[in-house]
Amino acid sequence: MEFRDDAYLAFTAIGNILAIYFALFIAPAEVEMGELVRVLYFHLPGAIATYITLIISTITGVLYLVKREWRYDAISESAAILGLIYGAITLIGGSIWANATWGVYWNWDPRETTTLILWLAYLGYFFLRMSVENVERRASVSAVYNILAILTVPLSYISFIVWPSLHPRLSSGGEIGLTGTMVQALVLNIMMGLLFTFWLLRRAYEVRMKNDELKRRLTEEARVAG
Questions:
Q1: Which of 165-200 are b and which e, b meaning 16 or more Cβ less than 10 Å from the residue's Cβ?
Q2: Which burial class, exposed, middle or buried, applies to 121 when counting CB atoms under 10 A from its CB (0-12, 13-18, 19+)?
Q3: pLDDT (tens digit, 9 = 90+) per residue, 113-149?
Q4: Mean pLDDT score of the chain, rounded to an integer?
Q5: 144 with 58: CB under 8 angstroms?
Q6: pTM of the full structure
Q7: In degrees rounded to 5, what are phi and psi of residue 167?
Q8: Which of 68, 88, 55, 49 is nearest to 191 (CA)?
Q9: Exposed (0-12), middle (13-18) or buried (19+): which is 126, by Cβ within 10 Å?
């Protein structure tokens, strides 16, 4: 069956609208945090999307090293772009939540700090790509760098478990206690957010491939004209 991009986007858009409505108007406020808990329904999906896109970027980078197929480098770069964007959204959302909860936007909490390290590592990934002119070497070096940079993902994930942290946990016992309706709202927003993320990844990949094809044609035309 042929993939229908328009149908997928329509389903994803409707699903995200319903998920947002569920989170804002149906799910109840949390006992301790009150209405502030609604930030969680958007902050956590963004963080999950950050991790998943960067993992995809690393896997496809490794596949490029093994198979030397350009499509893997294209997917790897496209996923890293999304990871960088979602990472920035996660940092900003986390800072807003921190200010509302702790009274400051930034306090070098382990989760905040390690997520910033993650974001800076992948910012370096793009600086590296821009610094290498040879396309084959750029793809190879970027893939190797990616293997090292991905270590910041588990570091960010386990940071508030390993080190003392103010970052709230989804549990009972004085932290964030979620009711069944709140869990449903959270799961729905995660699922719909990921569906939208995969659509963005597909579009970013297509743009990258079209750009590569355009460059190839221009190079050939210039060689023929010369």
A1: bebbeeeeeeebebeeebebbbebbbebbbbbbbbb
A2: buried
A3: 999 999 999 999 999 999 999 999 999 999 999 999 9
A4: 90
A5: no
A6: 0.91
A7: -60, 125
A8: 49
A9: middle
What whole-number distance in Å separates Cα of residue 93 and Cα of residue 24?
16
User: Residues 6 or more apart from 77 whose CB is under 8 A from it?
Assistant: 57, 129, 142, 208
Digit-coded pLDDT (tens) for 135-188: 999 999 999 999 999 999 999 999 878 877 666 666 544 456 778 899 999 999
Query: Around 22, how many Cα atoms within 13 Å sit in the side-chain half-sphere?
Result: 21
